[in-house]
Write a sequence for this structure.
């Protein structure tokens, strides 16, 4: 069955769920577009890899002993004595630093003849939004696209994290933007509140070809159903937490857990804020 929420399902934003949902949604977007744009255009699923290394002070230290010096007792003093020279270089035991590898998928729509990038579709993740090197990397890529002939579609279905500045758009829970080269600096924007149905948006092509279309709500519902999220999504409260008002509204859509009635979580459990 489709997602019970009329718009974005806030339970999908949980860190333990988001990566799976993001991958499935991006894949489904690609499949939906491919059937609309062939044969003049083709769709590619690309991947950007973020490698997060811990700070230097947290990385593994070298283990073992050096192969050059020892301390020997010479009367009342200790002096450094070199080990006999060897033709073989001794190895030491080291540790690789822990790294967190995050793969971020996105959609490219390209011209079949020229192979030019026509439109890039990004479903934002926390890595794109949170201040730090990952956001800076995305901003650099975004800036290049904004000064090219490529259209950019940016789908932000995360309440958490600072949004990219966009004049003329007020506070909202979610946001979608379509930037066409011929319209810049103007863009099409959809500010979305938690109770709004996700919009149907145009996907720009080139030449005389009409826009492709993406019904984001239908896509979300199809992904939700195919992934079987209903079976386990509601065992933990939304993360980031909802406000008290949003939480009261959301509870009418949450399927009851077998054997339970009423609210699944107390206000304390949700960590909701005013």
């Amino acid at each position: 069955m489709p997602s019970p929420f009329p718009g974005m399902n806030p339970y999908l934003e949980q860190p333990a769920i988001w990566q799976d949902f993001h991958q499935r949604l991006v894949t489904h977007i690609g499949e939906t577009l491919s059937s609309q744009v062939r044969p003049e255009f083709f769709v590619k699923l690309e991947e950007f890899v973020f490698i997060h290394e811990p700070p230097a002070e947290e990385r593994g230290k070298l283990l073992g002993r050096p192969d050059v010096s020892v301390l020997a007792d010479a009367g009342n003093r200790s002096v450094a004595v070199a080990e006999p020279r060897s033709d073989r270089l001794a190895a030491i035991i080291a540790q690789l630093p822990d790294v967190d590898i995050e793969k971020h998928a996105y959609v490219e729509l390209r011209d079949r003849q020229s192979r030019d990038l026509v439109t890039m579709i990004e479903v934002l993740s926390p890595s794109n939004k949170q201040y730090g090197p990952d956001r800076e990397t995305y901003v650099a890529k975004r800036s290049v696209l904004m000064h090219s002939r490529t259209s950019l579609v940016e789908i932000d279905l995360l309440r958490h994290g600072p949004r990219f500045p966009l004049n003329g758009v007020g506070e909202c829970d979610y946001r979608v933007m379509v930037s066409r080269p011929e319209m810049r600096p103007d863009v099409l924007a959809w500010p979305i509140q938690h109770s709004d149905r996700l919009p149907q948006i145009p996907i720009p092509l080139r030449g005389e070809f009409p826009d492709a279309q993406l019904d984001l709500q239908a896509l979300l519902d199809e992904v939700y159903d195919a992934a079987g999220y209903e079976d386990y999504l509601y065992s933990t409260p939304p993360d980031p937490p909802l406000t008290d008002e949003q939480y009261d509204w959301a509870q009418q859509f949450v399927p009851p857990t077998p054997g339970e009635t009423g609210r699944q979580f107390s206000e304390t459990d949700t960590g909701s804020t005013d």
